[in-house]
Amino acid sequence: MPRESYRVFYARLFIKWQVNQKGRSVAHAVPSTWLVYCRPGFEKAVLAELQYHAGVHGVLCVEESGDGWASLTRKNEEPINTLHRLAAFDLLIFARQSLVAVPELTLSREDRLSPIVDQLLEAGWSFDAIWHETPDTNDGKALSRLLKALSRPLESTLKKRGALRRKAGGRRLHVFWKSGTCVQLGMSFPGNRSELPGGIRRLRSPSRAPSRSTLKLEEAWHEFIPKQEWEQRLSPHMTAADLGAAPGGWTWQLVQKGMYVYAIDNGPINADLMASGQVDHLKEDGFTWEPPQRLDWLVCDIVDKPMRVLAMVERWLVRRWCKEAVFNLKLPMKKRWEEVTKCLSHLESSLHQAGVKSRIRCRHLYHDREEVTVHVRLES
């Protein structure tokens, strides 16, 4: 959606709220909450990230979280749309989805739909799609039959009331079910959200890959490289290095793209990969090995302290030994957000001081666990 459309939409909502405030209290329909989804167990990290952005833009908020989600609500109960727009989804690391939301509703089992419809009409929202979602937990998955039963009746009612319509600027309603009787309604906007249900990219594990870690690199490519650029940036006859390669999960992805790979690890590499003729297995230390010429790609999933891995990757990037890099940073159990920002700030500063122009992105991917994935592309 164009920036002007955002402003017009947000302004209309705020004016409507002010008008309603004069007539009757509808504070429960004000979109004053920034709601995000995350991997269960990472709620503290995502809250620290959201509070950082709120602090940068001078917005005072109250935080709340549950398994697989976190939120900030403005203390003055005014709309949070501006903060949501400024802290764009592409900037976020630990959030799987980013929504503007109204306060949660407690529902009765006898009538779950009427309160949802009433709150949406009071909020004045219109949208062209409805997604029913749950936290990424076993309790959330257990709600699937209930959501399927409620989906069509809610859609039919909202069409009749004019909230769900064909052309609504790509706005999407997210009905986030925290339980069977607790729901929070959120809105997402094109260009500032994940286009995946629940913000999760589910990939099928290749049966021939040496390990499931192969999905980390595949997901990273989906996340950081537009599909229309794959043919150019992930093309056959490119060269790559996989540091800490054994048994070859990431090397397998590179080979599937037709690349020639230097697999650096003292451990064994899968026999089928070696038989491809595209892999040169060097039993050397990935932290000290140097490539014989400039490569197209560096990938690395070494288990070590994040700053040690970062120092190694910085050396590659400053000396321009590769054009693009994907690497994982293993995180401590506490202060994950602080550790990530320290690493990224250090990397950005080092490249800037060396006169190396680059684009750096970082995301906690679905197939990551206690780690984040960083992508760096050097600019000529």
UniProtKB/TrEMBL annotation:
Keywords: Cytoplasm, Methyltransferase, rRNA processing, S-adenosyl-L-methionine, Transferase. The gene is rlmM. Residues 211-303 form the Ribosomal RNA methyltransferase FtsJ domain. GO terms for cellular component: cytoplasm. It holds the Pfam family FtsJ. It comes from Vreelandella salicampi. S-adenosyl-L-methionine binds at residues 213, 246-249, 265, 285, 301. Residues 34-99 form the RlmM ferredoxin-like domain. It catalyses: cytidine(2498) in 23S rRNA + S-adenosyl-L-methionine = 2'-O-methylcytidine(2498) in 23S rRNA + S-adenosyl-L-homocysteine + H(+). The keyword rRNA processing applies. PANTHER family: RIBOSOMAL RNA LARGE SUBUNIT METHYLTRANSFERASE M, RIBOSOMAL RNA METHYLTRANSFERASE FTSJ DOMAIN-CONTAINING PROTEIN. InterPro entries: RlmM_FDX, RlmM_THUMP-like, RNA_MeTrfase_FtsJ_dom, rRNA_MeTrfase_M, SAM-dependent_MTases_sf. Catalyzes the 2'-O-methylation at nucleotide C2498 in 23S rRNA. Its EC number is 2.1.1.186. Its main location: cytoplasm. GO terms for biological process: methylation; rRNA processing. One of its GO terms (molecular function) is S-adenosylmethionine-dependent methyltransferase activity. This is Ribosomal RNA large subunit methyltransferase M. It comes from the Bacteria. Belongs to the class I-like SAM-binding methyltransferase superfamily. RNA methyltransferase RlmE family. RlmM subfamily. Residues 111-189 form the Ribosomal RNA large subunit methyltransferase M THUMP-like domain. Monomer. The active site is at residue 330. It is found in: Cytoplasm.
